Amino acid sequence: MAIWGKKPEEGNSDFLAPRPAEEGTQTKSHSLAEVAVDAGSIDVTPSTASINVVAEEPRLAPVQDAEVAELRRSNYSRRDSLRGEIFDQPEPAAMLTADRLLDVSARNRPAPESGFRRFVYFLTLKTVNLGDSLKVRERKALDARIGASLSGGAKFVPVLTRKGGVGKTTVSTLLGMALALSREDRVIAIDANPDRGTLAERVSKSTRFTVRDVVNRAAAIDGFTDFSTMVSRDVTRLDVLASDSDPMLSEAFDEGDYNVVADMAARYYSIVLTDCGTGIVHSVMRPTLQRATGLVIVSGGSVDEARLASETLTWLEANGYGDLVRNSVVALNTATQATQLVKLDEIEQHFKTRVRHVVRIPYDPALAAGSVIKFKDLKKGTREAARELAALVVDGLNNPV
User: Fold this and answer.
1) Burial 330-365 (b: 16+ CB within 10 A, else e)
2) Domain that holds residue 363
3) What average pLDDT does this structure show over 40-64?
4) How far is Cα 188 from Cα 191, in angstroms, rounded to an integer?
5) Judgement on whether residues 338 and 364 belong to the same structural domain of the protein
6) Does pLDDT of 309 surpass 50?
7) 390 alpha carbon, distance to own chain's centre
8) Would you say residue 49 has pLDDT above 60?
9) Which of 65, 149, 193, 217 has the highest CB neighbour count under 10 A?
10) Contact 161, 308 (CB under 8 A)
């Protein structure tokens, strides 16, 4: 091997000569003069061809319990809990749901309401519970829909049509009674007919106050006790606020007056029904529709009554209330004249293309008399129609289009 660290002395030709090999060994040497080395061709990077790469195994946190073979999870779900999954954090309160905690077995079901099922329940000392019949379960389901809780403030539901004499006030009364019977909050029906409405005459009248009195005394009304003296309460717990009884003052009830009454009602009631007059372009109609979160259109069973009800929907759509129309319910009153000569199925089919649902109100002598309505004395079909209408209205309030 050549010694490069020592400067060659002048005249010393043996400086680059290789050392002699030891005896018994073979050496192979090359002179630098014989081999040309290109510095640019030398790869000075280290070679990794001979390095074995070993993948690093992920380090797992030590398991707290030696008997647990899987990692704990923190993303809770009801299904995982049922499978016995183990979590690394305490269960949140949201996991304490009613379907998880309540025992709905036959042993803990409510006693059947009546009939043979109730007899068996008590005969067996409450050990055999067959539950309610299908009819009772359907009724309870309808009660639950009507009594569903409503988010937000008061919900305003106008009941209107462009034609008089089709049973608008009757439908308003039936709807209010069905709502008040099944709900735990307060329901009021306001007679906003500027032409001497008759809504207060469909319930047992207990006061002479009207909407005009509410407007005049608004500043002095300090609570529900004061307001309740101005309404008539039916046995169903429906409150009714009458319109002006003096026809000379009826035209004075305008947009501003309605807003005063509506603001007052919104303080104490969850659902405010407004029995509107036939004048759809009257000034009261504007605030009524602006506040509306639901809508009921009343149609009679004759050709002209159905056409005018449909034109009411067209007017509403043309004036920016298309969403309200699509979420509305049509109450088809089949007790009007010429109903027997008209194909009610065709009328119903027409409205189903424009609104969310249609409910038929059957003929009932107690309604045709035009006097005070006693809900319990109505025919079963009439009561069921009113309850179905109430359920559909509440459905729309909770799930607007």
Assistant:
1) bbbbbbbeebeebeeeebbebbeebbbbbbbbbbbe
2) 144-398
3) 52
4) 10
5) yes
6) yes
7) 16
8) no
9) 193
10) yes
